């Protein structure tokens, strides 16, 4: 009987619609790491500084974060399918435009438009997978995080391969793959596939902002701001730290971050579930976040060692895979809010946290030393875990524990304030 139940809950037993959204999610997340291997090449070809170049991340993440707050409002009115398709269409258009651009400022602008499409897609994709998948919320989130990991792994590899031909190649490649994802969702995602409802209940425009007043979601979002700062220090700054060590070409950088992305995928799918079966989710965060801080400190200490930096990147990927999955599960389980609202609010805040990291990291490196960004990332992670520990009384639901009537009443009062 147990074997049957486990088979039923397997992430591999999913409707075609879920696989279509998961495939498009892989391609969407490829866009995050796609530019990593070509950052030095873009800086060289377009005579841009490192800080100007990493604005490709910042413009993308700022618009993604801001737009995330409104995706649940849009999705609840036009439906998840149309929202997903609109997001994919925007990514196709702006990725193609970025590949045709001739200067760094124009590419930064088109990456912002890309971020708008990404916001419409990513926030809705998480709610769609959770709503349409079989096997419960945890299985759906593992599938979503697996898509994230695969996208983060394949993105740098594809970016490196296409970037070795031209820095424009990765942008054109993304546009083509997103077009395939658009067709897959158009054909396979049927009305009513999400939570069995063809017409979603309209969501108030203020819902994601009001959701952040819920103590549990507010605490997790605050922790995610600092966590994502560290995430994007590792992702966006490390290519520039590797260039002085002899790894500056697109293929080499692509291989390094391919290893990072594979690590994210493996631990998010296999290791995170093992840990959360044995201990509360918040305890996993308490244990793994300090390990990520130690990893970043080690990279700072051995920033002039190629082997140490590469090992630090891969180990960081392992830890990030666990944390991504556990944080997402916490968000989905911590409140009784609609999934699309919780996803929009949490994702909006965390992407804004990530947007700050790339330019801050390069400016710290220029003003202080190449190791300074990694130290800043480590400190940000420690702040994140402190927030989770101090807010643990509000995160009981995230651990599968029921709040007392008094705690529930306090949470509702604060959320409606």
UniProtKB/TrEMBL annotation:
Q: Transferase as a keyword?
A: no
Q: Where in the cell is it found?
A: Cell membrane
**Origin, by domain of life?**
Bacteria
Record GO cellular component, one term? plasma membrane
Q: What is its main location?
A: membrane
Q: Where are the transmembrane segments?
A: 17-35, 55-76, 83-102, 114-134, 141-165, 171-189, 216-238, 250-272, 284-303, 309-327, 348-365, 371-391
Q: SUPFAM superfamilies given for it? A: MFS general substrate transporter
Question: Does the keyword Transcription regulation feature in the UniProt annotation?
Answer: no
Membrane topology label: Multi-pass membrane protein
Which keywords fit this entry according to its UniProt record?
A: Membrane, Transmembrane, Transmembrane helix
Checking Pfam families in the record gives: MFS_1 (PF07690)
| Residue ranges of every copy of the Major facilitator superfamily (MFS) profile domain listed in the record | 17-396
GO molecular function term, any single one = transmembrane transporter activity
PROSITE patterns in UniProt: MFS (PS50850)
Its name, as the record gives it, is Predicted arabinose efflux permease, MFS family
Source species of the chain: Microterricola viridarii
């Amino acid at each position: 009987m147990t074997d049957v139940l486990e088979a039923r809950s397997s992430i591999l037993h999913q409707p075609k619609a879920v696989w279509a959204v998961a495939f498009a999610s892989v391609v969407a997340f490829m866009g995050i790491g796609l530019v990593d291997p070509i950052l030095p090449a873009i800086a060289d070809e377009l005579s841009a500084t490192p800080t100007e170049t990493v604005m490709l991340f910042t413009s993308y993440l700022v618009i993604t974060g801001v737009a995330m707050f409104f995706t649940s409002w849009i999705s609840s009115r036009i439906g998840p399918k149309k929202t997903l398709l609109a997001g994919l269409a925007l990514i196709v258009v702006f990725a193609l435009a970025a590949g045709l651009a001739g200067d760094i400022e124009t590419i930064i602008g088109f990456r912002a438009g890309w971020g708008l499409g990404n916001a419409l897609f990513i926030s809705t994709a998480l709610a769609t997978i959770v709503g349409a998948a079989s096997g419960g919320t945890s299985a759906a989130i593992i599938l979503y995080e697996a898509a994230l990991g695969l996208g983060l792994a394949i993105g740098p590899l594809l970016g490196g391969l296409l970037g070795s031909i031209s820095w424009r190649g990765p942008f054109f490649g993304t546009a083509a793959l997103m077009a395939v994802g658009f067709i897959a969702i158009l054909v396979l995602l049927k009305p009513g596939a999400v939570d069995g409802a063809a017409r979603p209940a309209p969501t108030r425009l203020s819902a994601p902002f009001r959701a952040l007043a819920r103590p549990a979601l507010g605490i997790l979002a605050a922790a995610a701001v600092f966590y994502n700062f560290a995430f994007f220090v590792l992702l966006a700054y490390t290519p520039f730290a590797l260039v002085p060590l002899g790894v500056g070409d697109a293929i080499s950088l692509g291989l390094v971050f391919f290893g990072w992305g594979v690590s994210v995928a493996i631990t998010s799918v296999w290791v995170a579930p093992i840990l959360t079966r044995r201990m509360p989710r918040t305890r996993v965060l308490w244990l793994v976040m300090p390990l990520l801080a130690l990893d970043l400190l080690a990279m700072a200490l051995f920033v002039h060692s190629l082997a140490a930096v590469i090992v630090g990147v891969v180990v960081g990927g392992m830890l990030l895979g666990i944390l991504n999955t556990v944080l997402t599960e916490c968000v989905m389980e911590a409140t009784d809010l609609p999934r699309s609202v919780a996803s929009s609010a949490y994702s909006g805040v965390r992407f804004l946290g990530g947007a700050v990291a790339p330019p801050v990291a390069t400016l710290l490196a220029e003003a202080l030393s190449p190791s300074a960004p990694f130290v800043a990332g480590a400190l940000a992670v420690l702040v994140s875990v402190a927030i989770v520990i101090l807010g643990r009384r509000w995160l009981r639901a995230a651990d599968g524990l029921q709040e007392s009537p008094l705690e529930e009443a306090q949470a509702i009062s604060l959320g409606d304030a």
